[in-house]
Amino acid sequence: MQQVEKGNKAVSRKNSLLFRIVIILKISNFDIVINSWKKSKPYLPLDLDKTLIIREVYILYREITWLKTRNFKLESNKIYHQADDNKISEKELSIHNACLPPIHSVIMNCIGQSGLSALLEQNYSCNQQLHCFVPLGMVKPFLLRFDN
After folding, report:
1. What is the residue range of 34's domain?
2. Are 70 and 135 in the same domain?
3. What's the number of domains the chain is made of?
4. Where are the beta strands (DSSP E) in 23-92?
5. Alpha carbon distance 32, 87 (integer Å)
6. Of 7-16, 22-31, 42-51, 68-77, which range is least confident?
7. Is the pLDDT of residue 11 over 50?
8. Pairing, β 124-125 against β 64-66
9. Are residues 80 and 45 both part of a single domain?
């Protein structure tokens, strides 16, 4: 994580971004934000508005993509990102004692359509529908990948 110098203290970019967003929320008129948001999403119940707006703000800090089967394509070892991919933070992972699949391992779908797999080239998170295969020793990751 990059550091930003502020006086004598080094502040992480993530913390400075959080600080800026909190300041903007404190300064701005929250009712105006909620009313404009209601117009864009009129189907939401009134009591959920504030919760969902706050959730959208917090989702900015989640940096690890939560993989689903829709991120995979048959006959490809790549992961395809979509604009509405869910994300999770390292703090949320530690709260639930979860761990990330190691980089250079193979993720494969085990429920539903077979043959969906990919090589991990960065940190991702996933649920029990996707299995992780970790190559040991000199085994190359692509040898663990299943092809139809």
Report:
1. 3-61
2. yes
3. 2
4. 64-66, 87-88
5. 28
6. 7-16
7. no
8. parallel
9. no
